[in-house]
Sequence to fold (386 residues):
Amino acid sequence: MLLGSDGHLAPTIFAEMSALAQRSGSINLGQGFPDEDGPREVLDAAVKAIRDGVNQYPPGRGMPILLEAVARHQKRFYGIDLDPATEVLVTAGATEALAATLLALVEPGDEVVTLEPFYDSYGAVIGLADGVHRTVPLRGPDFTVDPDELRRAVTDRTRVILLNDPHNPTGTVLDAATRELVVELAHRHDAIIVSDEVYEHLLFDGLTHSPISTLPGARERSVTISSGGKTFSTTGWKIGWLSAPAALVDQILAVKQFLTYVNGAPFQPAIAAGLDLPDGYFAEAAAALEHKRDVLSAGLVAAGFSVSRPHGSYFVVADAAGLGYSDAVDLCRRLPELAGVVGVPISAFCHADLAAEYSSLVRFAFCKRIDVLERASTQLTGLRSR
Ligand code: PMP
Ligand code: GLN
Fold:
């Protein structure tokens, strides 16, 4: 199921686009990873941990120093009380948290409802679990959920409603009415809410995040997933975590132990140090990224794209139709040669129907240095004259 039609493993769209950027010497606005290091305290804590001998298998649930830091973080930012010993699990990035959760909860034939476009691993892992993937489209121009479409998608066959808030690739932040409806539907149809919140600290325009598990009646049926990768610009460390009621954590741990068993011993105390950084760190990280959003968005508009206004995440969606490019897959393939820039077609995050509807849309990552975003913008202005 994960093999291409020729029987070979197809690389993910992100790996493919990063390879293209490298091969062509282009600016990589495709794969979402920062081009600058995160906070010194976090990097130093990892170096110290390695030198101090924190180099063997950590405990299966994660090191207490990180479990406790996750619990403190959820309390400080969201007022959530968690028992670090039973309600938190450390994972190999959010990717493993998602995989272990879906493999633990989804039986063959169970339905999993996600927003669409959706992050690529969702579709793949639902497939690995032999689940059935149902989607609720995010409709432009603001990529919002139509409540009737959400109501139609969730039924008694639904085992999991898998959210991503803030959302990759659209940058949408779910509104209160949508979140409340998700909780209501999860109750009505006895579904579990799995909420991927890896961009929880990267919100703009004065918005702040709050996990869906904080809504009345949500906590007992929610798994909340996050990761240190985005918040601390350490995407290569792959330290993620989830929190959920103890019984759900146990079920997920039963799978997780046979995926990676454990991971990243010296990075666990380092991410714990990050989670304990003062509020100012988190506010400044969001403000810096908001400025980058504005710089790249302005550059894309100057180049002739029309752009969405993402309220969170690393990504802006640009419509190339006005430039005369109706096929973003084709454009993204040629963009290195046309402009020395790499982006990802939104269709890579969609099933066929929505892919056709969104065929002229490209996702660009703005988690890059300002000078890089400016250079990319200048290069993209050349598209008009072609
Ligand atoms: N979920 C979303 C929405 C993402 O964008 C990403 C990738 N960055 C992940 C999960 C995976 O996170 P991690 O690198 O921590 O596995
Ligand atoms: N989350 C990143 C993105 O959306 C990439 C992660 C990956 O390459 N798997 O670009």
